[in-house]
From TrEMBL:
The gene is panB. It catalyses: (6R)-5,10-methylene-5,6,7,8-tetrahydrofolate + 3-methyl-2-oxobutanoate + H2O = 2-dehydropantoate + (6S)-5,6,7,8-tetrahydrofolate. NCBIfam families: panB, PRK00311.1. Belongs to the PanB family. InterPro entries: Pantoate_hydroxy_MeTrfase, Pyrv/PenolPyrv_kinase-like_dom, Pyrv_kinase-like_dom_sf. Mg(2+) binds at D55, D94, E125. The keyword Transferase applies. It holds the Pfam family Pantoate_transf. Pathway: Cofactor biosynthesis; (R)-pantothenate biosynthesis; (R)-pantoate from 3-methyl-2-oxobutanoate: step 1/2. This is 3-methyl-2-oxobutanoate hydroxymethyltransferase. Catalyzes the reversible reaction in which hydroxymethyl group from 5,10-methylenetetrahydrofolate is transferred onto alpha-ketoisovalerate to form ketopantoate. Its EC number is 2.1.2.11. 3-methyl-2-oxobutanoate binds at D55, S56, D94, K123.
Length: 276
């Protein structure tokens, strides 16, 4: 699945069952986005557990205002590039906007991301009935799935912008129910984005599969950041939940290693990166 030129060929590959074992053992999971082989190699060298080829590439690589213009062809191209820089880091790839509009399209997209792109897991946003059906269908065909709940960027127009989700009790209860639903559908992992710390903690304690937070507080089983935010090169205002790990360090490698270390020690995210 991955190339042979990675820096640590003796490291055992990270797997979906392995992530669940990490949750059970209380070991925090380090996830980071990547969009090309060179940066993927940096993630591998730093011992990052999961590389995510996010449709965030539409914003940080292509310069769009949202993730919506990203196509499946774009995702396959970037996923394949990232795969060439990895050896043992688990590779997850997003299903882009509308590629999960029905089960047939979701299966086609998943097959391309795994078969052509080299992904080991695909990520779907939300928990609508058609998404739950797609999760079950993908898992039935041996394609592991990462769910994504809370602030789901592909729903930006429905939300009226990139807004924190689950602050009211009814909304929080709905997101918790969605987490249980995606787990029941067969998801192996859940990204929780843009929600109060207390809600992310409730979800993490309620499900057996690992949770990965981004703007969801310190109680998740792991954390993910967009690489460009971590390096402080994202144009405009950096999101509240991110941190410039390159500041005060002399290399990209040092910044990624520092991020991995802070996640594993529970230092990041700190209170200033969280929402109430």
């Amino acid at each position: 699945m991955y190339v042979q030129n990675a820096s640590n060929p003796d490291r055992k590959p990270v797997t979906a069952p392995g992530l669940r074992a990490m949750k059970a053992e209380g070991r925090r999971i380090v996830m980071l986005t990547a969009y090309d082989a060179s940066f993927a190699f940096q993630l591998e060298s730093a011992g990052v557990d999961v590389a995510l080829v996010g449709d965030s590439l539409g914003m940080v690589v292509q310069g769009h205002a949202s993730t919506l213009p990203v196509t499946l062809d774009h995702m396959v191209y970037h996923t394949a590039a990232v795969a060439r820089g990895l050896h043992s880091t688990l590779l997850v790839a997003d299903l882009p906007f509308m590629s999960d509009r029905d089960t047939a399209h979701a299966l086609e997209a998943g097959a391309r991301l795994v078969g052509e792109g080299g992904a080991a897991m695909v990520k779907l946003e939300g928990a609508a009935p058609h998404v739950l059906e797609a999760i079950s269908a993908l898992v039935a065909r041996a394609i592991p799935v990462c769910a994504h709940l809370g602030l789901t960027p592909q729903s930006v127009h429905k939300f009226g912008g990139f807004r924190i989700q689950g602050r009211e009790q009814e909304a929080a209860d709905r997101v918790l129910a969605e987490a249980r639903a995606v787990e029941a559908a067969g998801a192996d992992l859940i990204v929780l984005e843009g929600m109060p710390t207390s809600l992310a903690q409730r979800i993490t304690e309620a499900v057996a599969i690992p949770t990965i937070g981004i703007g969801a507080g310190p109680h998740c089983d792991g954390q993910v950041l967009v690489l460009h935010d971590l390096l402080g090169v994202t144009p405009g205002k950096r999101p509240k939940f991110s941190k410039d790990f390159l500041l005060g360090r002399d290399s990209v490698a040092a910044a990624i290693a520092a991020y991995a270390d802070e996640v594993r020690r529970g230092v990041f995210p700190a209170p200033e990166h969280c929402f109430n």
